[in-house]
Structure prediction request, 410 residues.
Amino acid sequence: MRSIYRQLTLRTRIIISFVLLMVAVMGFIVAAEQLDYDELRAYVISKSLHSEMHRLEAEMANGTLPTLPDGSQLYDATTVPEALRSYTPGYYSAKHPDVWHMLVFDRDGQRYYLRQDAKRYQYLEHVIDAYALVVILSCILCAFWIGRLTAARVIAPITRLADAVERKEMPFPFQDARDEIGVLARAFAQHSDEAQQFLQRERCFVGDASHELRTPLAIIAGAAETIVHQLPDDSHLHASAERIMRTTQEMQRQLTCLLLLSRDPHRLEKEDVALRPLIEECIARCPPWLANKPVVVVVLDAPQDPRVHTNAELARSVVWNLLRNACQYTDEGQIHISVQDTTLVIADTGPGLPSSIDPQQFQRFTPSARQSGEGLGLSIVQRIVEHLGWHMAVESSEHGCRFTLDMSAA
Prediction:
């Protein structure tokens, strides 16, 4: 039976559950309609009168005067009212104009009439109302039970599949099922396979890039350095050769940074990095970006021994990208760097971020208002910050930008 149930689709299971619910409700209704409240009332009252009759007979047999409760009258053949004299032994009731109930019985050759007012049996109305309430509550409880049971059976496969996806358990369960759960499980499995293939291609690309690009860049850097040292001091090619060497070194650093970003953050090599030497190293690379600009020399406000436990290459890339952007877009004024504990602040007096860039979410290839660069600098900074578990806040206005970097890992 259970195997048949599992072969049904979710839609069919829900429909069957509602049908069973309606069957249960209709069963209660039919059972309630089969009970005639008048007959039930008459049966209870008749039983009560017979019980009272037996008590009176016992008292009369003992020769004592029968005691009658309030609302009850006992007549014999001599005292019975003329309107009741025609009744033969049995149970009777009257509704109009006065409501009463009567039991006629014979004892020792004499007929007796036991009549009781309807007030004595008013509790029956409350009992009947309570019965109707019990029927309603039973229907509600039955619906709740069926709904809960159905929900548990329908949701259980979904919950199990969700747990398997969250825990990355392979292979996913229910892939052989014919219902909607099977469709969902197969879709998850296909998506997981595609993701694994994509990750494998990425790993291959990272490995190939690391092997195939590092060697040519090293050759170009060595050749450029050789050219710089071999050119005469008065050669007009010095500037171009130095630019080639500087750009090649920058490409090597960016390649290293991108390769580190492709790794699992939990597997990064970390050490205690001294911030001041790292910042001074980045400042030493700034003069080409500040040439012919009335920009005050970068002010460094940092203690001698601030340290942060992180990856040195990625930390250097963050500081250099932020500092390079400040140098590139500041035409006059100053660039200020300050460090307090593990908080780094880089502020400039440039024009601020263009309106096309959201300070809270830097997107790749966002065009700059100043030039048509590729716009990768701030995007890489944000990726590194997230990769290291840091936090970065940006304040931008027409008077400049202020980047506040909290380098304490979350």
Summary: Residues 180-230 form the longest helix (51 residues).
